[in-house]
Design a protein that fits this description.
Chain A: Belongs to the ABC transporter superfamily. The structure holds three protein chains of three kinds. Chain A is of the alpha/beta class. In chain A, 40% of the residues lie in helices and 21% in strands. The radius of gyration of chain A is 22 Å and the shape is globular. Chain A starts with a strand and ends with a helix. Chain C contains twelve helices and ten strands. In chain C, the strands form two sheets. In chain C, strands 6-7-8-3-9-10 form a six-stranded mixed β-sheet, sandwiched between helices. In chain C, 49% of the residues are buried. Classes of the chains: A alpha/beta, B mainly alpha, C alpha/beta.
Chain lengths: 291, 276, 285
């Protein structure tokens, strides 16, 4: 059984009124345990609406969402679903509740009604995992953006979820903060946590093993990044811009240079080009010969 | 903007003192007892002893006296007003006239009363600042929640009140920072906040207040969603990481405070009778 | 004389208290009219403190600063004129919108300048057009009904309506999606090229800097550590890395290719330039 299964999900805001807006229009997809998925899309593509369906913050207008076999429409399963799928939001300032880091991390487990000793143990562990243990007594508003998001992640981890959904959690961070969060979630994924990373930073999507592109409330592309990022023309249509290296590789291929498809990183492109020089040396010299 | 980074929440000064270690509930109780005592005391001997007691607590708390006295600055104006009003407009008829300026008369009785009232104000500020200096906001809200918990049956929303206080404390620095930023952004568009009469100044604040409210509502929305996502459903089912526990030192502190307060309120004349 | 001239500019927050913090230390920098300068540096390097000095929202605690001929070390400097000449666009400027209509919001600045309504209207229409927002379509709408990208452009128009000579922008593309980023940065480039505005752009992104600016000032711990043409700065990859700053991916690629013996020009920053340089080096025409 997949961890998350979405069947023909449609979501309409203000349904039945004159202001009705179709945000999601027939989405079907599954996410298995242990996956690391990037969901990308321009503004208005429906990314955030989709995210909020994953732990029943929103319910489908039509269709079904299952988390670990539980239907999100089932009120009785609500708290269990929210414990299993944790969510980190965009603005680091607007999701920390308490005035001290450790109190904030304890907020989730406290809501689950765990005994104090258990909460202390979980807070310790969660802060250690996100490498914020030394800040446990700090006031959240004095931390950097990246640190705040790591505290928010710790607050979710302390609930021992199976899946972490990041709803544009890196959008408001500086490059340093983005790196911190990416490294943290990559580490968590290696330890078995399923990660769904919603972002419009293509450089981050490139690092995820599976990329889903949303456009106009539908799944437009779904596959490994090398495949998704070779569909350049389609991406442009979806308000997405290729990162420079895949863009350059694509142009060079279109020029007829024999380099492989699906190049994402500097090292790959540099390698491909140097190999080309070594192999195609004959051609270069032949050109010289005409002088 | 960096300036507001240095705003600390409340006025809490972390120290490892015996006063800091007390349970917040006992500190709240002690403050209540002392507040009553401050109003009951009627003569110099009582005030003298109260002052000695407070100095003792300050010493034990390891909070520099200077910090505490600085806390008086905001009430200085109020203090002066109280003194002046009570000296010259006491309404006390008769008594020993100390000096007279036209129709304004200052009597010995009025001056004494003004000094007592002024002293009460100072003592109250000192007592409450001692509480906030030695108790972290988290402890303070926990203490209030626990004290109110028995009244839940009467419909007192103890948990909700405490949660509101926590969130307010958490967002004060954020909103201060935001206010400063919006003011600067409007100043860059030619806004002036320091010129003109009161009406013009109030109008000049609209471009600051509207964005501030818009942002506060957005934050509230997002925070509510984040709390829901973390399984928050009110005080029901909820446990706490740190449950408050009363220790023997709390009993000692409370007994001491009660005994001392009792002693302050004994009038000087009774002392004389007792000592004779 | 340079438009902006800092000499040993120093700013200390809460001077003389235990919380004293040096935000800027001996910053010497001059910007000529018509330049397009990027200011880059890690968080806490003093970027935001520095730009707030340029329109007197902050005053130097040490050193000299002249902007547009106005001496800002003088406490009685003509701040009003200065704020009109130097337009400052803060991060997430859409958070400052407050009026009922887009038109009135953009008109806020000109009205503060006590212009007559005709001229106010002229400026509103002009500055909305500059950021690609149709005044006829959007003028009467509430700014709060717009999309994120549109709101940001309206907010920038609100600053342009002051008709500044210098435009200072703090991370104007932060938080936008890739297409929105491209659009806003394209418009800023156009403002520089077509209107001749002097532009100072604070950014975290080396790729943004590479695409837009000609000169780059690198700040670290409150000091200017590098200042020069963008292409020269990106050759100092190791120094930048030591500051926790990367170099743009294309510049990194070029350095690697040169390292493995391919004769590509090191002054290559954009995808188009790189494509041309690689084709030339490989003689692939």
């Amino acid at each position: 059984m997949p961890l998350i299964e979405i069947r023909n999900l449609r979501h309409v805001y203000h349904a039945g009124t004159a202001d009705a807006v179709v945000a999601l229009d027939g989405i079907s997809l599954t996410v298995d345990r242990g996956e690391f998925v990037a969901i990308v899309g321009g503004n208005g593509s429906g990314k955030s609406t989709l995210a909020k369906h994953l732990n029943a913050l929103l319910l489908p207008t039509e269709g079904e969402v299952f988390v670990d076999g539980m239907n999100t429409r089932d009120r009785g399963a609500l708290w269990e679903i929210r414990q299993r799928v944790g969510m980190v939001f965009q603005n680091p300032d607007n999701q920390l509740v308490a005035t001290v880091v450790e109190e904030d991390v304890a907020f989730g487990p406290e809501n689950l009604g765990l005994p104090p000793a258990e909460i202390v143990a979980r807070v310790d562990e969660a802060l250690r995992v996100v490498e914020m243990a030394e800040y446990r007594q700090h006031e959240p508003h004095l931390l950097s953006g990246g640190q705040k998001q790591r505290v928010a992640i710790a607050g979710i981890l302390a609930m021992r979820p199976q899946c972490l959904v990041l709803d544009e959690a890196t959008t408001m961070l500086d490059p340093q903060g983005q790196r911190e969060v990416m490294e943290t979630i990559q580490r968590l994924n290696r330890d078995g946590v399923t990660v769904i990373h919603i972002t419009h930073a293509m450089e981050e999507a490139v690092q995820c093993p599976r990329v889903i592109v949303l456009a106009d409330g539908r799944v437009a592309l779904d596959g490994p990044p090398a495949e998704v990022f070779s569909r350049v023309e389609e991406l442009e249509r979806f308000r997405l811009v290729l990162p420079p290296i895949p863009a350059l590789a694509h142009r060079l291929r279109r020029d007829g240079l024999p380099i492989p498809e699906g190049i994402l990183y500097v090292e790959e492109l540099a390698g491909a080009l140097t190999r080309l020089v070594a192999e195609g040396a004959g051609r270069g010299r032949a050109g010289d010969g005409t002088h | 903007m960096e300036l507001t980074r240095y705003v600390t929440i409340g006025q809490y000064i972390p120290r490892e003192s015996p006063v800091h270690r007390l349970d917040p509930r006992s500190k709240i109780a002690a403050v209540t007892v002392l507040t009553v005592a401050v109003f009951v005391v009627r003569d110099f001997s009582g005030y003298g002893l109260l002052t000695l007691f407070l100095l003792g607590v300050v010493l034990a708390s390891q909070i520099p006296l200077g910090y505490l006295l600085r806390g008086l600055r905001p009430v200085l104006f109020l203090l002066l007003m109280t003194l002046v009003l009570n000296v010259f407009f006491s309404g006390i008829q008769g008594g020993t006239v100390l000096f007279q300026l036209g129709p304004v008369v200052a009597t010995r009785e009025a001056v004494l009363r003004a000094v007592f009232i002024g002293y009460r104000l100072v003592a109250l500020v000192l007592v409450t600042s001692l509480l906030t200096f030695t108790t972290s906001p988290v402890q303070l809200t926990d203490g209030i929640e626990r004290i109110l918990r028995p009244f839940r049956r009467l419909g007192v929303p103890a948990h909700e009140l405490a949660m509101m206080m926590t969130i307010a404390l958490r967002f004060i620095p954020t909103l201060l920072e935001e206010t400063e930023k919006i003011m600067k952004a409007q100043m860059a568009r030619g806004a002036e906040f320091e010129h003109g009469n009161i009406l013009r100044r109030a109008r000049a604040l609209v471009p600051v207040l509207v964005p501030l409210f818009v942002s506060a509502f957005r934050r509230a929305d997002e925070l509510a969603l984040a709390m829901e996502a973390r399984c928050y459903r009110g005080g029901e089912h909820r446990t706490r990481m740190k449950e408050l526990r009363l220790a023997p030192r709390d009993a000692v502190a409370l007994v001491l405070t009660l005994a001392a307060s009792f002693v302050f309120t004994i009038p000087y004349t009774t002392w004389q009778a007792l000592l004779r | 004389m340079a438009l902006i001239e800092c000499r040993n500019l120093t700013h200390v927050y809460l001077k003389g208290t235990p919380l004293e913090a040096v935000a800027l230390q001996d910053v010497t920098l001059s910007v000529e009219a018509g330049e397009f300068v990027g200011i880059i540096g890690p968080t806490g390097s003093g970027k935001s403190t520095l730009i707030q000095h340029f329109n007197a929202l902050l005053r130097p605690t040490g050193g000299a600063l002249r902007v547009s001929g106005i001496d800002l070390a003088n406490p009685r400097a003509d701040v009003k004129t200065l704020r009109q000449q130097v337009g400052l666009v803060f991060q997430y400027p859409e958070h400052q919108l407050f009026e009922e209509t887009v038109y009135d919001d953009v008109a806020y600045g000109p009205r503060n300048l006590r212009l007559n309504e005709d001229e106010v209207g002229e400026r509103v229409v002009e500055s909305l057009a500059l950021v690609g927002v149709d005044p006829n379509r959007f003028g009467r709408r509430s700014p709060f009904s717009l999309s994120g990208g549109e709101m940001r452009r309206v907010a920038i128009a609100g600053v342009l309506a002051m008709r500044p000579r210098v435009l200072v922008l703090d991370e104007p593309a932060a938080g936008l999606d890739p297409k929105g980023k491209e659009e806003i940065l394209g418009q800023i480039r156009a403002l520089h090229q077509a209107q001749g505005l002097t532009v100072l752009l604070v950014t975290h992104s080396m790729d943004e800097a590479a695409q837009l600016v000609r000169r780059l000032v690198v700040l670290a711990r409150g000091r200017v550590v590098m200042d020069g043409p963008v292409r020269e700065i990106f050759r100092r990859a190791q120094d930048l890395a030591a500051l926790g700053l990367g170099i743009p991916a294309i510049a990194e690629l070029m350095l690697r290719l040169r390292g493995s013996g391919l004769q590509v020009s090191p002054d290559t920053l954009t995808v188009d330039e790189a494509r041309a340089a690689i084709r030339e080096a490989l003689r692939w025409n």
